[in-house]
Specification:
The chain has 26 helices and two strands. It is mainly α. It has a two-stranded antiparallel ribbon. The longest helix is centred in the last third of the chain and has 28 residues. The two termini are 23 Å apart. Helix 3 packs parallel to helix 18, helix 4 crosses helix 18 and helix 9 runs parallel beside helix 25. Among the domains are: 93 residues, no CATH class; 212 residues, no CATH class.
Length: 553
């Protein structure tokens, strides 16, 4: 092991030198659609592999950005300066990105206050009679993931931070907590009838439906496609079976055994993205649980209220439905309102009850914000490499190499694989959906020689549309540069690379099953109910006979 470590740095340096020399000597790869090449996937692939090898996610992402920028401007020094003064500045000044950064940091301040005022410790104390076992705490975490269904960002930060004290108490590893948080966030939000995800997906259907004169309501098409979201559905099935049987395999088994045997919820060399020590000092006296849960409730209530208020303000039609209101809402403003007003509420409760004075309350809020700095840095880097991939036409290249093998019955299978590859490379499910749906929907309508209104209600079309979503979430779950994966590591105070390594075998298990049994099955006429039942049985068999019991050693 020491020998491997001794050669790791020289090997990485050699790869870097070769990569930059190759990038600076290569011609432009973005001058025309016909010239896209495999070089376009080099920066994200390099960053991901380097992160897994070195365990340094921040450095790996930055080097990937630098390499991609070098490919764009064809010079390593100019590539460095362009990455710093153009790509990163554009990333931070993007409205959506800036809103998420503000929400993340202010939410960290909220957690800092409710930790310092003893509310979080009081909640743990109050719930101790119910969260009496490892299994019950995992089930409670999964249940919370189902309850916070309206947005994946809110889901990860709320569930991870709320459940971490409970799961630590019963010796659940941070790797397992981050897996439960990550794998209930996007799947639940994407399957919910009303959520930021469902509205976004439906909005992408409106243009191609109008182009082909399709009279079917896009919302009805989305509802029909839900049973075909095989990865998202089977992921939730996998989690429930996994928790009930308490069997693990791969790196997760080692992590859970470590936590049960030694009480160490983090590995010795772990570098958690969130540092709870900045938010909660030693020997915090538990206070009433309401000091934590009232501010948390305010986050949920204000965010939902904000969606309705901004939606009603923006919607133009008379007598709008709830879907129309949510579709016209500003989720970023709603999240910022929720985090800020809940922070004010938490400070007000702490000072009003005499638990903290104003100075201590504000200090704990600032410490909570500071605890999120590392997470915000990695978010900025992840978004930036996504911008680099956009300029390198990474997604277009992946679409071009898959379009040559498309037939109607293979359409869901190829679409799922392409979506997964794009999402894994760019770290963004929404970017993947916005790229693929305008391409895949017209392609499906051309390949299936039927009336367009009949096509959009056929199982193959519905599975193809759902495969964009499911494939995007699958790639997201496997990618170290995914924003939701980063936020899950942050909220769970887990080492980010440890989270990716422990989650990937589980995601691959479900992903391969969804792609083969699900996408291929629909393409060749297997009923969706048969696919879901068979898939659930297969997952049970895998967990039961491949997984090993977690026990103290």
């Amino acid at each position: 092991m020491k020998l491997i470590q001794s050669y790791k740095i020289p090997a990485v340096l050699l790869i870097l030198i070769l990569g930059f020399v190759f990038a600076s000597e290569t011609g432009s790869i973005s001058s025309g659609a016909g010239e896209y090449s495999i070089l376009s996937i080099l920066p994200p692939l390099f960053a991901i592999l380097l992160a897994l090898v070195t365990h340094e996610a921040h450095l790996s992402l930055f080097i990937g950005i630098w390499l991609g920028s070098t490919l764009v401007v064809q010079h390593p020094i100019s590539g460095l300066t362009y990455a710093l003064d153009t790509y990163m500045v554009q990333t931070v000044t993007d409205h959506g990105h800036a809103s998420i950064l503000i929400f993340t940091m202010v939410f960290g301040g909220l957690i800092g206050v409710i930790s310092a005022n003893g509310g979080m410790a009081g909640a743990v104390h109050a719930a101790a009679r119910y969260a009496t076992s490892n299994r019950r705490s995992q089930l409670a975490t999964v249940l919370m993931g189902f309850v916070i269904f309206f947005d994946d960002y809110a889901n990860t930060l709320l569930v991870g931070n709320m459940m971490r004290p409970f799961t630590d108490r019963v010796k659940i590893s941070r790797e397992k907590l981050s897996y439960l948080v990550d794998s209930t966030a996007a799947p639940v939000a994407s399957l919910a009838i009303i959520s930021s995800w469902s509205v976004f997906q439906m909005s992408l259907l409106e243009s191609p439906f109008e182009q082909f004169g399709i009279s079917v309501n896009p919302y009805f098409t989305f509802i029909q496609s839900i049973p075909f979201s095989f990865y998202c559905i089977l992921t939730l099935v996998f989690i429930l079976i996994n928790v009930m049987l308490k069997r693990e395999y791969g790196p997760m088994h080692a992590a859970e055994n470590r936590a049960i045997s030694t009480g160490k919820v983090l590995a010795d060399n772990a570098k958690p993205l969130l540092d709870p020590s900045l938010m909660q000092g030693k020997n915090i006296t538990p206070s009433h649980w309401s000091n934590a849960f009232i501010p948390i409730g305010v986050v949920v209530a204000v965010t939902i209220g904000g969606l309705i208020i901004t939606g009603l303000k923006s919607v133009t039609m008379e007598n709008p439905s709830l879907r129309d209101i949510i579709g016209a809402a500003d989720p970023y403003a709603s999240l910022i309102w929720g985090s800020c007003i809940s922070s004010i509420t938490a400070i007000g409760i702490s000072v009003g009850k005499g638990v903290l004075n104003l100075e201590k309350a504000l200090e704990s809020w600032v410490n909570g914000v500071r605890s999120m700095v590392m997470a915000c840095i990695i978010l900025v880097l992840a978004w930036t490499i996504g911008s680099v991939c956009k300029d390198l036409h990474t997604a277009e290249y992946l679409v071009s190499i898959s379009s040559n093998v498309l037939t109607p019955n293979m359409l869901p299978f190829i679409t799922f694989g392409t979506a997964a590859a794009i999402s894994f490379s760019t770290g963004s499910s929404w970017a993947t959906m916005s790229i693929l749906i305008p391409v895949v929907v017209p392609m499906a309508l051309h390949l299936m020689t039927l009336d367009p209104n009949a096509v959009v209600e056929s199982p193959v079309f519905l599975a193809t549309f759902a495969s964009v979503l499911s494939g995007s979430v699958f790639g997201d779950h496997c990618s170290p540069i995914s924003d939701t994966t980063i936020l899950s590591s942050t909220a769970s105070a887990s080492d980010h690379i440890d989270h990716v390594k422990t989650q990937m075998p589980y995601a691959l298990t479900v992903g391969v099953l969804a792609m083969t049994l699900g996408c291929l099955g629909v393409g060749f006429g297997v009923p969706v109910s048969v696919i879901l039942i068979t898939g659930s049985v297969i997952l049970f068999v895998i967990i039961r006979y491949v997984g090993q019991p977690v026990r103290a050693v």
